[in-house]
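In response to reviewer comment 3 from the previous cycle, which asked for concrete evidence that the modeling workflow produces usable outputs, we include below a single protein chain processed end to end. The sequence was submitted unchanged, and the resulting structure tokens are shown without manual editing.
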Amino acid sequence: MRKLVLALGLLLVGGATAFAQEMRMPINADDVKWGPAPSVFPAGAQIAVISGDPFKEGLYVARLKMPADYKIPAHNHPTSEYVTVLSGDFHIGMGDKLNAQKGQLLRAGGFAEAPAKMNHYAWCSSETVVQVHGQGPFAITYVDPADDPSKK
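The workflow returned the following structure tokens.
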């Protein structure tokens, strides 16, 4: 019995060690590496990929840093999008056209979910950082194709 308990304990410790070796190193906000956001976003935003790869199959976590008065026209995604406001004033609304009268203001700690294929839009009234997570690959389809900055 004693050998069985010892073997089970070693198995659990070995499994925990293997898990720890697969775990990505934690990072603090000061360690986040920012770069220009992809061309599917209006100019001026920066992105930091925290986990995964938004443009490949699988879960991802990314942060988007937007300047004051930044606007993302009405669009949708093939998968659900989950947004947590880390800092600033983030406004989000549902619909086919950005309408500042109908959006909702979210401050630090605020959360929004945009279900797959749901048309929505966003803007910032101050410099804002949001954390976005979801199932990749990430794609964005603008309701009005003329709003797509990657086509300009």
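The helical segments are 2-22. We consider this sufficient to address the reviewer's concern, and the full set will be provided in the supplementary archive.
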